[in-house]
Specification:
Elements (H helix, E strand, L loop, with lengths): L2 E7 L7 H14 L5 E3 L13 H6 L8 H13 L2 E10 L2 E10 L2 E7 L20 E4 L2 E5 L8 H9 L4 E5 L7 H13 L2 E5 L4 E2 L2 E2 L5 E3 L5 E4 L6 E7 L8 E3 L2 E2 L17
Parallel strand pairs: 1-2, 2-3, 7-8, 8-9
Antiparallel strand pairs: 1-14, 3-4, 4-5, 6-7, 9-12, 10-11, 12-13, 15-16
């Protein structure tokens, strides 16, 4: 089963959704042949908010989002699906979110579980758990940026049968996630598409180097640190369902969960 997966590395414009959409229009043209496209974290708003009030003013409701409406139209035009970072307003709460959508609209939403630095002053901690969504026959999970640190999140989605993890990111710690994410891919034997952003906002410099990893942790495509860039590669997502390592070893069947419990630990 062949599937073309793409990541779009670019710099959303803080507080200017129309400028961001204008940038994305031409970049998504480059991704025309893809089946699934991954965009960076908080792609509809930018990242370096001066306050929760500013973040709130730049947020959108999923059901009323100008940005998601634009992306849905792009999905219809190009016949692909998109996973995007999203500054989302839900009632009176604000979540750093990721949204999976296609030509028919929103398929599912994930809310970032692990908040980084000043995000703790702006967003609520995610409350969705770690869902896996069906995109046709393919099982897609989503994580966001700082979630890269926590192997539990990656393993949960592996146990739920994810074939691909989409990882919208605004990484600012050079090289760390880009070294670690391939290890999550191989230890769970699934594909990962990390879409990082570039550029600067206020005191933050984003590190680029978006990448797409195979089930052996191999780098199938990698961007540079500073350029707006579309990566694309062809994968067989069903490879993620073969968890055999040797004729006597299997990634899932050899687990010993009875030994992994937090016995004797405080959390």
């Amino acid at each position: 089963m062949e599937m073309k997966i793409a990541t779009v590395q670019f710099a959303p414009v803080l507080g200017n959704i129309e400028a961001t959409i204008a940038k994305l229009g031409s970049l998504l043209e480059e991704a025309d042949e893809a089946d699934l496209v991954v965009l960076p974290e908080l792609a509809n708003s930018g990242y370096a908010f001066s306050s929760r009030e500013e973040a709130w003013s730049l947020s959108e409701r999923v059901e009323e989002s100008h940005f998601l409406s634009f992306l849905t139209e792009e999905c219809r035009k190009h016949q692909f699906a998109i996973a995007t970072g999203f500054n989302g307003r839900y009632g009176d709460k604000l979540f750093n979110s990721a949204v999976l959508l296609d030509a028919d609209g929103v398929i599912g939403t994930y809310r970032k579980a692990h908040l980084f630095l000043n995000e703790k002053d702006i967003f609520e901690p995610g409350d969705t758990g770690f869902p896996v969504f069906l995109l046709g026959e393919v099982r897609v999970g989503m994580l966001i940026c700082f979630d890269w640190v926590f192997p539990e999140a990656w393993r949960i989605m592996g146990l739920k049968g994810a074939d691909i993890i989409c990882h919208p990111s605004n990484l600012v710690l050079p090289g760390l996630a880009q070294r670690t994410v391939p290890a999550h891919a191989v230890t769970n034997r699934y594909f990962v598409a990390l879409a990082n952003r570039i550029g600067q906002e206020k005191e933050l410099t984003f590190t680029g180097n978006s990448l797409i990893c195979g089930v052996k942790g191999e780098i199938l495509a990698e961007a540079d640190a500073t350029t707006e860039q579309v990566l694309m590669t062809t994968i067989d997502p069903l490879q993620a369902r073969d968890k055999s390592l040797t004729k006597r070893n299997n990634w899932l069947q050899d687990r010993r969960p009875e030994l992994y419990r937090n016995e004797g630990l405080t959390d």
